[in-house]
Every structure is written in C-alpha cells, then in structure tokens.
Write a structure and sequence with these properties.
Layout: E1 2-8, H1 13-25, E2 31-37, H2 40-47, H3 56-73, H4 88-97, H5 106-117, H6 126-136, H7 145-160, E3 168-171, E4 174-177, H8 182-189, H9 199-203
Parallel strand pairs: 1-2
Antiparallel strand pairs: 1-3, 3-4
Helix pairs in contact: 1-3, 1-5, 2-7, 4-7
Amino acid sequence: MKSLQFWFDPISPYAYLGFERLPQALEGLSYSVDYRPILFAGLLKAWGQKGPAEIEPKRAWTFRQIAWQAHRLGVQIDTPAQHPFNPLALLRLLHACAPEGGMPNRWQCEQVFHHVWHGGADANDAQRLAELRARLAPARDPDGEAVKQSVKDSTAAALARGIFGVPTIEVDGRLFWGLDSLEMLAAYLRGDPWFDGPDWDAAATPRPGIART
C-alpha cells in the first residue's frame, strides 16, 4: 500500500476538485492518504508569485475553467461570495480537529471544502464558521498558539519539499501538482515503467536560458 500526502488549502478550487476526484482517479489502487492543510499564500510569498485570482484575466479564466471541470466531473461547485479570502480560520480549524502531530480525516476536510465551495456564501461569515466549528467539534482550540504554530509548521514543511502550489500529492518523495496530475499519479501507482526510467529526471533537467532581473 502506498502512502500519499495530499497538501491543500481550501481556498483553492483546484484543491477542492482534486479532493473530490481523488477516489475515482485512483479507483482499484491500494493507498492511504494523509490530508495536510497548508497556507497557499505562504507558498506564493516564498516563491515570489501572485495567486491566479490576483491577476484579473487569469482569475476570469481560472473560474471559467473550474466551472467547466466541475461540469465535466459532475461535481457541485459554487464560487464563494468573496474570493480570494483569508483561509486561516479554516486552516486552524482543520489542524485543531486532529490530535497534536496528527492530521484531519477526510470527512473533516470534506466539511470544510463544502463550507467554501457549496452554496456561494461568504466562507468567513461568523455564523457559518461557528456552525462549522460546532459540527466538527475540534479536539483542540483553533485559536490556540499550538494550532497556529501547527499551520505555520506544515506550510514550512511543504516549502522544504519544494511544493509551490495546491493541490500537491506526494508519494515516494515525488510530487504531483494540480488536478490534471491525477492521471499521471494513477499511472505511477499502477507501476508504469516510464517512472523507473531516465525520463522523470531528464525532463526536469535545467536548461540555462534568459534570466529576468
């Protein structure tokens, strides 16, 4: 059985769709999943990038594409009333749901994803957050310093692995980024010999070129 780490931030529609699609994409394979909530904005800051929603033409295309992807996959998706939004309350809630050093389970992650991507409401509405918190009944205090540090530590751990976006699925030290990597991940888990040859490393070999200043 392969052990997968699913790195995500509920702010990302691609992370939501990847989460929903994962069981079907990997149907018939033997695996377990650890769900690892991290702060996407922390990745963007560390790598010097802007998020898709921060560039207007890219934002428009992103939400058209995810609407199409959801339609194609038969997955409900309703863009929240405000996007982008600050996901820290949700990330801390997810970390608080797990015992110290642990990770939230799939049901807990699903509840948070549906909170954001079902219904089109404000993900940070105080009443909705209170209802979500009551439903999840976290084991630890989401507002406690230990939980806040846990979010920071998980994001730092993702950066240390070279993770730059969400969702990223890690298995055997290999990183598979994005909704559209699920087919590639499934091929790897099925033992496609391409992954054992030189092509995996050769494809990522740097080609020196023009550097922007």
